[in-house]
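Before drawing any conclusions, I looked closely at one protein, both as residues and as discrete backbone shape codes, quoted below without any editing:
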Amino acid sequence: MLQQLINSFVLGALTALASSLITMTAYRTATLEQDELVDFIVGSVVASRLSENPNWEVLVLEAGGQPPPESKESFFPRGKVIGGCSAINYMTFIRGNRKDFDTWAEMGNTGWDYDSIMPFYIKMENYKGKHAKKYAKYHSQTGPLSVESLRWDSPFTKYFMAAGKELGLEEVDFNSEKSV
């Protein structure tokens, strides 16, 4: 009982501290009229690229509003904010599985195969990860989307990594050929 009280107090204090330290991005929001037309309805990152063309109207459709400051420390798996789950999932960037893209192309969606999509993923990246040299052909360092290695991990990570290495597993970039 006492431990729960202490945990609640510490969580509240950390939330208050986070709120005072984290500067939130203000997103322009608007309510569309019933018959208003837009050229694209997409997620945040794609919207950023599309909105570079001043002739296009882009609607970002997300389930939620401004991310609260404590979302940067949240461990709850809900992405009901602008930016979706990326606001709470440690910003993990995963392109997707080659087989999924290739299956979509086989279903008649021309241009959605993995090899056709890859140049667009690479173009949008500004990769700053620890695998930059080893997997350079799978990344760009000039795009608008920052992708990097974790800045923090659990103290137990080194033990999990050592166990994996002992089993013969290697550390890889999961956005390279090792992911497919």
In short: The CA atoms of residues 5 and 156 lie 26 Å apart.
